[in-house]
């Protein structure tokens, strides 16, 4: 009896699956049949290509693009994703068709975090977006404000150099990311909130503890949504932890409001300072920004501006540990500048114009290891033709900047770390040359690109000038593991360990 019951169940299940597949096929034909969609791997019913996408998506898409071409369809459940993998197609996406492709798809988590796109990162392209973007361009990221905040950056890099110096010992390998991440954290909280939550002895104050917990809770919540996120009609089986999201949002708002109030009181007594929180508070009325938007913008800057810079420097140092000749050449240039500007000081941002090779090293690291290899996802708000294919309204569009900057048809020896290529040809990195797009391009180009680049170059300049970098004892330079960790931002899968040796007089290592 039991056996025949299972048989009936199986028959029913097959029938349901067959009907579902037939219905989906009919819907597919109805919706997409008349369109010339970009080619791509054959999708399965319900899940599309989800089962075949490797954890390192940008690498998997780069391989698939070899077969299907630079404009490719990938189905995540029933949602069409178009992946762009050539400089020409990127130009079309980010320049010619930019306006129609400048919105964002909202996952359930992003919708909760951003209060349905009331911030900048997750806002759809429209009047709200244009307004907050204007605030960024005209107010937050002006050269004047970046100049005013220079002392913060330089101070935080000095703190990092001093703590690294204290850990140096012959043959002792240190975890490089630990220093870079601490620096990036203190730097961004000071720029955005005007706060250093960590004292000189490394002790985190109660607000800092709360701040770090909010960040790590946010990451956990974001990571808790997996496959069903892509298949809307299966989401009911995996309900969102609504209470946890609400609690997280409330904690974040409460801490931010306390900090905002502190700044309000300080401004009333002593005038506004240059931190982003001061700027946004004083502009709130002029631009008609809701409190939710101010909080959203502050957190956007924290999330987008923290890891990206630390990641870039870690990859750059890893490449330089693997290539001692290139490291020596960069150090020679830095030594030369010090001869000119005087022995009694370390390099500053003012010296960048005399350091073309250092700038080339930073660019080459960002070319080979863009921290956000698929940029952030864009969404089509109308039907668009791209490279002769139809991209229907609602499709998600990714630009694989990782694949483009390793494209052998545009880069000589694309996999080789060779900064000289940027000395031979001055290639823009901030969105004007579609061969090199670590910051994106067009309407949604990273508003923090100049700040990010300054940070990366300054960290690299000080770390290279003041220290020599070598592999841990017994490890050959070429065997440093350069594998990426899956995620929206790509850390090294195995954080870099290096032996760090001071190169300058000890007086130059104090804060
Ligand atoms: C090396 C450092 C950085 C890299 C490589 C980087 C890269 C990017 C990329 C690729 C995008 C997405 C562009 C797109 O969707 O088309 C982006 C967006 C963004 N970045 Fe950066 N970024 C860096 C540093 C920063 C910093 C320091 C900040 C702020 C303090 C920042 C704030 C933002 C914001 C707010 C957005 C969203 C822009 C929008 O949606 O309109 N980034 N960034």
TrEMBL record:
<dbReference type="InterPro" id="IPR001128">
    <property type="entry name" value="Cyt_P450"/>
</dbReference>
<keyword id="KW-0812">Transmembrane</keyword>
<keyword id="KW-0560">Oxidoreductase</keyword>
<keyword id="KW-0349">Heme</keyword>
<dbReference type="GO" id="GO:0004497">
    <property type="term" value="F:monooxygenase activity"/>
</dbReference>
<comment type="similarity">
    <text>Belongs to the cytochrome P450 family.</text>
</comment>
<keyword id="KW-0479">Metal-binding</keyword>
<feature type="binding site" description="axial binding residue">
    <location>
        <position position="446"/>
    </location>
    <ligand>
        <name>heme</name>
    </ligand>
</feature>
<dbReference type="GO" id="GO:0020037">
    <property type="term" value="F:heme binding"/>
</dbReference>
<keyword id="KW-0472">Membrane</keyword>
<dbReference type="GO" id="GO:0016705">
    <property type="term" value="F:oxidoreductase activity, acting on paired donors, with incorporation or reduction of molecular oxygen"/>
</dbReference>
<dbReference type="GO" id="GO:0005506">
    <property type="term" value="F:iron ion binding"/>
</dbReference>
<protein>
    <submittedName>
        <fullName>Uncharacterized protein</fullName>
    </submittedName>
</protein>
<keyword id="KW-0408">Iron</keyword>
<dbReference type="InterPro" id="IPR036396">
    <property type="entry name" value="Cyt_P450_sf"/>
</dbReference>
<dbReference type="InterPro" id="IPR002401">
    <property type="entry name" value="Cyt_P450_E_grp-I"/>
</dbReference>
<dbReference type="InterPro" id="IPR017972">
    <property type="entry name" value="Cyt_P450_CS"/>
</dbReference>
<dbReference type="Pfam" id="PF00067">
    <property type="entry name" value="p450"/>
</dbReference>
<keyword id="KW-0503">Monooxygenase</keyword>
<dbReference type="GO" id="GO:0016020">
    <property type="term" value="C:membrane"/>
</dbReference>
<feature type="transmembrane region" description="Helical">
    <location>
        <begin position="12"/>
        <end position="32"/>
    </location>
</feature>
<keyword id="KW-1133">Transmembrane helix</keyword>
